[in-house]
Design a protein that fits this description.
This protein has 158 residues and is mainly α. It is built from six helices and no strands.
Length: 158
């Protein structure tokens, strides 16, 4: 039994030496790999001019008061027609019936409203009614432009 114990004891003494040798080999391998240059392109492909062209900003910013080389498109500042107001601001609800709005050119839906008179229609337009906010969705429209839009919608059913 004593011989068996001494054989185990000898193997146990060798274990730290084997661990140290494995660690040293792993360390040497790591340093060897790290000392090799990495095989990758550090700069994107193309000439310097190609790269500069790819990095140029898209478009230009023109600030108020600067001469940007072109004039702005002319804007019509006159009053909007009834059709233009309808198409831009009223269409979303009055073409679909959203928010319980009477559908454009639906005589049956518009009849009770028209029977109340144009003053009542304009009052509803200017102050809102039900789910319709005041002035519909056209906060910048003048009373005349809103009147033209109401006239346009009423004329579609008469």
């Amino acid at each position: 039994m004593n011989a068996q114990y001494s054989a185990k004891n000898t193997n146990m003494k060798r274990l730290p030496n084997l661990s140290l040798m494995a660690f040293t080999a792993l360390l040497a391998l790591s340093f060897g790999l790290l000392s090799q240059p990495l095989q990758a392109n550090a700069v994107p492909p193309g000439t310097d001019d190609d790269i500069r062209e790819r990095l140029t900003p898209f478009g230009n910013l023109c600030r108020a008061g600067e001469d940007c080389g072109s004039s702005a498109a002319a804007v019509d500042t006159g009053p909007l027609s009834g059709e233009a107001v309808y198409n831009q601001f009223c269409f979303a609800c009055h073409a679909t019936g959203a928010s319980e709005a009477p559908i454009f050119a639906d005589a049956e839906a518009w009849a009770p409203r028209i029977d109340k008179g144009m003053d009542a229609l304009m009052n509803s337009t200017l102050n809102g009614i039900g789910m319709m906010p005041p002035k519909g969705t056209c906060m910048n429209c003048s009373d005349d432009e809103l009147q033209a839009a109401v006239d346009y919608m009423v004329e579609s059913v008469q």
